[in-house]
Amino acid sequence: MEITTEMIKQLRAATNAPMLDCRKALQEADGDFNKAVDWLREKGMATAAKRADRDASNGVVELYAHGNGRVGVMVEVNCETDFVARAEQFRNLAHEIALQIAASAPKYVAADDIPAAELEHEAEIARARAKEEGKPDNVMEKIVEGRLEKYKDEVCLMRQAYIRDESLTIENLILQNVAAIGENVIVRRFQRWELGESTSQE
Description:
- There is one protein chain.
- The protein has three domains: 5-52, Helicase, Ruva Protein, domain 3, CATH 1.10.8; 54-110 and 156-194, 2-Layer Sandwich (Tetrahydropterin Synthase, Chain A); 115-146, no CATH class.
- It is 51% helix and 17% strand.
- It has helices spanning 5-15, 19-28, 33-42, 47-50, 82-85, 88-104, 116-132, 137-155, 170-181; strands spanning 58-66, 71-79, 161-162, 165-169, 186-194.
- Strand 3 (161-162) and strand 4 form a beta hairpin.
- The radius of gyration is 19 Å and the shape is flat.
């Protein structure tokens, strides 16, 4: 895969690692952003990634209403210190995350949050669809896996494409801000309501 200057810039913004190391990381990871971050972490070069283990218990609960109150979002975004919690950049990031949730309606923060039963159910649907499309058995599991990954991209906030820049995921956006802010940032939880929707308890 061709490593573009834009990819290197994004990785540098997210990790603060030197440009040459970012290029090498992307080459080693065959262009996969998350794998490149991991590679830099293993080499001890990613300052943003180093912060991921630090406790984040300060922050903000951001509230956002959209479309004259048709959609409401509440999201808790954490950082390490009260000082950063009050900073404009951190507040802006929390607001952007709330906008993302309002616009893209994720169900989970991260892929690890998806219940196994739900993934199995989605896999069964993907299998049935692939059979219906007449896909051969030898590629069936690859197709199912691909569709499951696509499902995770849709329902997990961290994996969604950022509404203002589709070349970035929300995870990338947060990593860029971690590098700039100098503290760990975590999306703890969120809730999204839409006027007239039925709740799962009903």
